């Protein structure tokens, strides 16, 4: 059974859990899955074993806390410590998948903004400036993703007020977008100028998205 099949099976099994047990288990599931450095298949296999164990205990009237203890984070950390690391090939695929998806979205979004802001179907690019933006955007995007994942893992097993959590996520999202806006505004125009039709921009975005999708399917 591959990762996708295990995920689908896990989703179905979770429907059999009580509300309290599901909340407990899903916190562990998110926390473990967000440990992106571990092998996918082995991660999903251990999550499948955990839910099977919990379902059996639930039939006996036990709760998730009875099974896994009152410190789910420590229990999850112990499990993560036993999981094998992702091989270099898989890490590279994940890296390129993220890069392709990021530039696919940013390329298509820039085309849409151009249409609404100027009403033109032609967008001008300074080749040198775009190359610099690309080189700068990659580490910045990876840093933003890393910080976002760390926050999501930190938020697991904590009863954070929904309004407070919304405000934190909104603030971080605004800051992330603002960083890229600053990068694009501060960089000077460098290199030869080229006009590109918006449909070509969209086409490039679609190609990048398909490349990211191919990487994801191959993992």
TrEMBL record:
The keyword Protein transport does not apply. It comes from the Bacteria. Pfam families: DUF1129 (PF06570). Keywords: Membrane, Transmembrane, Transmembrane helix. Gene3D superfamilies: c-terminal domain of poly(a) binding protein (1.10.1900.10). The keyword Signal does not apply. The chain crosses the membrane at residues 95-116, 136-154, 166-187, 193-215. This is DUF1129 family protein. It comes from Evansella alkalicola.
